[in-house]
# Entry
Amino acid sequence: MSSYEYHHYPYSRPSELDGKATRRPVVIVGAGMAGPTLALELAARGVPTVVLDEDDTVSVGSRSICQAKHSLEVWDRFGISQRMVEKGITWEQGEVYLRDRPVWRFNLQPEPGHKFPAFVNLQQYYVEEFLYERCLAEPAIEMRFRNRVVGVTPQPGHVAVEVETPDGRYTLEAQWLVACDGVRSPVRHMLGLPFEGETFHDQFLIADIRLLDELPKERRFWFYPPFHPTNSVLLHRQADNVLRVDFQLGRDADAEEERKTENIDRRLRLLFGPEARWEHEWNSVYTFACRMMQRFVHGRVIFAGDAAHVVSPFGARGGNGAIADVDNLAWKLALVVAGEAPEALLDSYCSERRMAARENILNSTRSTDFITPKFPASRAFRDATLTLAPDFPFARALINSGRLSVPTVQPDSPLDTPDRDSDWIGGPGPGRAMVDAPVGNGWLIDRLGRDFSLLTFGKDDVGLVPPGATAVAIAGNGLAWQRYDSRPGTTYLIRPDRYVAARWRTYDPAVVRLALDRAQGRDLGRSHR
Amino acid sequence: MTALRRTLNLARPDDVYNAIVDAHKGLTDEQCRDFDARLILLLANHIGDEAVIREALKEAAAR
# Structure
């Protein structure tokens, strides 16, 4: 039914089956979007990995389709984002309708001057395909398809991972095990760790179709449209002329019945009219939950992405949140594996990304409550907002059909150095993501180093740069100056995950060195794991 | 921070009170709820002070 041709990646007999048990610095469970991204980030820092996946192909179904700017900025380091932009659909505009009337039109990236757009819609299977291709070309990454994890046993100094293959079982010793194995995380279950939160009961039908006519490019969201008057509908375009149609079905819908082709066709016919023609790609009836683990680091087992926290799909915070997780984790894990930072640095992965997960869950729960009100008064306020929106701009801002993923704020991290100068009126402060800007003939994100970057404004020669940081001097007086609230001498210390660790009005190498030590967890002392 | 006003702030209190009540005349319970929701959102945005709104929510809920 799908127009995407699923490639089967080769399985080869692991050497451990022939008695060559080896200890690996990092073993990753799950080859979704997060696992391979982490493997590439670690490989770039000289840490070899083994990636275990239970099957031998990419995501079945389009699943996570909205790839956010910050994820594209991560994947750009591996040279695959341009390909995603070319293959996918760039969209920045969205429209919200009440019944048959447009009530709000939004632009997610109203200002120019960024290398990547706010969002590119691209099916998860393409993202994974591009990632796998890069991983398979990387000698430091071993992709092991049809390798299912069946046992996880923490040991002193390592984790014993029992793996099942078509040729039998073997044990792998992992110094660190990273579970990127999805919302049903087998690793989490094997360790008996709780995954608590709120379950929502509304059912939604996803119908991915290829519409054989002109396609709308922007996101469209309807409340009570004439073609589905009791609920909401979301329309979103993807690559290959595929359109995602997401119908809210309510609590009492019969999922089996709804998934029948003739019933989906009946709904689509009402939406697209008597002339439209389409072909089916994929469909799914889903409900969702917002859940989070209490800790993302358990001894030498680390959880990332949906395995650690899961949100509703409104806002595109699942896949993009997972990429932000591994971007936060990779450089820390590389430092710890190399013995250059204490293990306690990994606790900051947990605290920073739990804060991010809470923010994502809060946002997506609010969107969910707006789209599927849980009690009559909640529905009354939702409808009041929509009714007022055409005439009152303030009400448009309250329409919450998904607050789309932007980098979360991670305030008060033990790794960051708070502002000392009191005259900041803008720019990203500590705990906030850096922002891109045009610099010379290129982009700021392309000038940054793989590790820490020291951004200096109006200083051609910064002189002494502490080891571990790359100096990036910004001349002229362009957009970057505005975006960083800069004056001559302004200096930013940017972490490898492109969050701001510290900033100053003047450059003082000794102060920078202290901030750099702190950002690498050297203040945290040795932990006793 | 402005506190929620507890003393009279209307020049013609009876007129305003009756205007609010009269606006609900003839509405079903459900229509009243929808009307009130619109009214509350309009007024909340006009007040614009989150602390005042939160205090009003608290005082309204306490009784």
Notes: Residues 29-47 of chain B form the longest helix (19 residues). The mean pLDDT of chain B is 96. The interface with chain A takes residues 33-34, 36-38, 40-42, 45 of chain B (CB under 8 Å). The radius of gyration of chain B is 13 Å.
